[in-house]
Every structure is written in C-alpha cells, then in structure tokens.
Amino acid sequence: MRMYYFYFLAFLFLSSPSWVNASPVQLASIFNDSHQVEHYLVSEKYDGVRAIWDGTQLITRRGNSIHAPPWFTEKLPNTYLDGELWVDYGQFEFVSGLARQLNGNDEDWLKVKYMIFDMPKVSGVFAERYKKYVHLVSVLKQPHIQAVQQQSFASRAQLDDYFDKVVARGGEGIMLHLATATHLAGRSPQLLKYKPYSDAEAVVIGYSEGKGKYQGKTGALIVRNLDDGIEFKVGSGLTDALRAKPPHIGTVITYRYQDKTKYNKPRFARFLRVREIF
C-alpha cells in the first residue's frame, strides 16, 4: 500500500503543470499575425537538445549535467551561454541519447555542434547580445561551437519566404526574438516560435488496446494536456517499439497537431517524442 502511495505521489509530481513548466531559461510563445515582423531578429529553429553553459559545465534546462568530453567545452568562457546541441536534420534522437550518456565516445561527440543563440546574463537588449555572442564565437575559433545567425525582415511575405526555405531543407521552423528585449526567464512574449504545425505537451495517463496488427500491443496513449487538462488519445506516430513498450504512466510527451475541434481537443494529434526530463 505504501509503495502504491509513493507511485501515486510521483505521478502527481510528474503531471503537475507548475513543475513541468518551471524553468530558469527563456521559453518561446507562439507567433501569430498580430506580431510585427520588422521588430524581430529571426533565426532557424534547430531541433536539438537545449544546453546551457553556466560558466563551468553544460547543463540541461532542468539543471542536470550533460557529460560532454573535456575537449568539447574547454575553450568556453566563464560566461553564461544558451544554445542547442545539434547534429543534423532528423537527428534529434541521436543527440538526445548522446546527451544522456555518462561516457559518450569522442566519435559521436565529433558530430555535435553547440549552436549558441544567446548570452542571457550579459547586459543589453537582444540585438546587442547577438553581436556579443557572434564576436565570442569568432574569437573561440572552434568548429563545433557556432553562432546562430539572426536576420531581419521588412514584411510578412519575406518572413514566410525564409520560413518555407527552412522547412524545405528539413528545418523545424524559425524563431523570432524581439530585438529590443532584455532577457526574461520563463515563458516569454518576446521570444516566438513559428512552425508548420502546432505542438504541445501532455502527460500519459493510460493506454488503449491495439487492434489488428497491433493486437496485444498499445493502440494509443491516453493523455492529458498540461495546459488545459483536456484528455484524448495519441496513436499516430508511435513506432512498433513504443507500442510494445509504451512510455510509463506519468511520462510527459510532446505531440503535434493541426488545429482543435469545437470541444478543444487537438485534431490529427501525432506523437513526436518523450519530453526531456534529464
């Protein structure tokens, strides 16, 4: 009975929106037609692992250590940096798995780039911080440490043209950062993401039985949205391996969808990945 109570408390902890959204880093809001694009600096959104250099080590946005080899970080300064560990398009699972390892091999880490996109604790608005992190990377002269390039656009048509090119080459979307913004931790209206689909997070609360070729396996995950508590099923996007061994109850997943029904349920929800908690 005590063990059941422990697991119940753990489930409540993992599924609590106040916990899963807690973060010292800046998180993006959604871009929409009301935003004036000429006020923003725009960059590609890299689908990698968020990595913060705290001046001494690489950590996740949850504050857990990323055990990169010494040569990967030895040239980084005693300055707080925000960025993404990225390998290539379609390689999220590879870099995510590598970032979790205690002793990843050099051959794998040689494929990884640290894409720096902010220096949060340096004074100044984002346009000024951008110039500073570009200068820093140019001084470091390390091929695996790169500065995320920012661009500006005078119209929505120009922005959409850039967006289409990024998506066409396999990119996840683009980020818009208000040029005059100071750094703001947590969910920020000054940092926006523009993607070809919407995504959200939900906690797994159950499973539905598979049918046909999925008999005896998981047909769909029963999940609850973290933001509004809406419950629904996600089956599309699950691999055979995940259907055989689905994410545990209490696991937070990321899913994509096109729009919402009149009952506020996601339409065409598709599993993307288990949300990083390390």
UniProtKB/TrEMBL annotation:
<dbReference type="GO" id="GO:0006310">
    <property type="term" value="P:DNA recombination"/>
</dbReference>
<keyword id="KW-0235">DNA replication</keyword>
<keyword id="KW-0234">DNA repair</keyword>
<feature type="signal peptide">
    <location>
        <begin position="1"/>
        <end position="22"/>
    </location>
</feature>
<keyword id="KW-0732">Signal</keyword>
<dbReference type="Pfam" id="PF14743">
    <property type="entry name" value="DNA_ligase_OB_2"/>
</dbReference>
<keyword id="KW-0436">Ligase</keyword>
<dbReference type="GO" id="GO:0006281">
    <property type="term" value="P:DNA repair"/>
</dbReference>
<dbReference type="GO" id="GO:0003910">
    <property type="term" value="F:DNA ligase (ATP) activity"/>
</dbReference>
<dbReference type="Pfam" id="PF01068">
    <property type="entry name" value="DNA_ligase_A_M"/>
</dbReference>
<feature type="domain" description="ATP-dependent DNA ligase family profile">
    <location>
        <begin position="37"/>
        <end position="195"/>
    </location>
</feature>
<keyword id="KW-0227">DNA damage</keyword>
<dbReference type="GO" id="GO:0006260">
    <property type="term" value="P:DNA replication"/>
</dbReference>
<dbReference type="InterPro" id="IPR029319">
    <property type="entry name" value="DNA_ligase_OB"/>
</dbReference>
<feature type="domain" description="DNA ligase OB-like">
    <location>
        <begin position="209"/>
        <end position="275"/>
    </location>
</feature>
<dbReference type="GO" id="GO:0005524">
    <property type="term" value="F:ATP binding"/>
</dbReference>
<dbReference type="InterPro" id="IPR012310">
    <property type="entry name" value="DNA_ligase_ATP-dep_cent"/>
</dbReference>
<protein>
    <submittedName>
        <fullName>DNA ligase</fullName>
    </submittedName>
</protein>
<dbReference type="InterPro" id="IPR050326">
    <property type="entry name" value="NAD_dep_DNA_ligaseB"/>
</dbReference>
<dbReference type="InterPro" id="IPR012340">
    <property type="entry name" value="NA-bd_OB-fold"/>
</dbReference>
